[in-house]
Design brief:
This protein is an alpha/beta fold and 134 residues long. It has 2 domains: 1-56, 2,3-Dihydroxybiphenyl 1,2-Dioxygenase, domain 1, CATH 3.10.180.10; 71-134, 2,3-Dihydroxybiphenyl 1,2-Dioxygenase, domain 1 (Roll), CATH 3.10.180. The chain has 2 helices and 8 strands; from the N terminus they run E-H-E-E-E-E-H-E-E-E. Strands 1-4-3-2 form a 4-stranded mixed beta sheet, with helices on one face. The longest helix is centred in the middle third of the chain and has 13 residues, at 79-91.
């Protein structure tokens, strides 16, 4: 088995898809509409499929910490790649939630917010410090 996709509800499907296309070279895989429901499947970072969904009556965002979904984490191959992507966010004024943080469990990360406030983490895991998660 493997992860197929991660789905997000949005009030503005075009803004969210445009964001991932503009800044993360997202590729639109397909679009679907049925009644007032519509979705767009995209692939970001050449490895993660997202389903961006909308329908009438979707409530606003709740950015408070709560039980349930927290963030999406994308693993990269080096600290330098985390730094490069973080600097890319800064240059493009993409809001950052976390900037180049090193943890004692071997994780080195930054994270950004998409237009709906979803947290996307960019992480490098040092295989010497934490081989269990690779």
């Amino acid at each position: 088995m493997k992860l197929q996709h991660i789905a997000f509800w949005t009030q503005d499907i075009n803004t969210l898809v445009d964001f991932y296309q503009k800044y993360w070279q997202a590729k639109v895989l397909f679009k679907h509409q049925s009644g007032d429901f519509s979705c767009v499947f995209i692939e970001v970072f050449s490895c993660v499929k997202l389903e961006i969904m909308t329908r009438k009556g979707i409530p606003g965002t709740d950015r408070e910490e709560r039980v349930g979904y927290s963030h999406l984490s994308i693993q990269v191959d080096s600290k330098e790649e985390v730094n490069r992507l973080t600097d890319y966010c800064l240059e493009n004024k993409i809001p950052l939630q976390k900037v180049k943080e090193q943890y004692d469990d071997g994780y080195y990360e930054s994270s950004f917010l998409d237009p709906d406030g979803n947290i996307v983490e960019i992480a490098y895991v040092d295989p010497i410090v934490n081989p269990a998660v690779l």
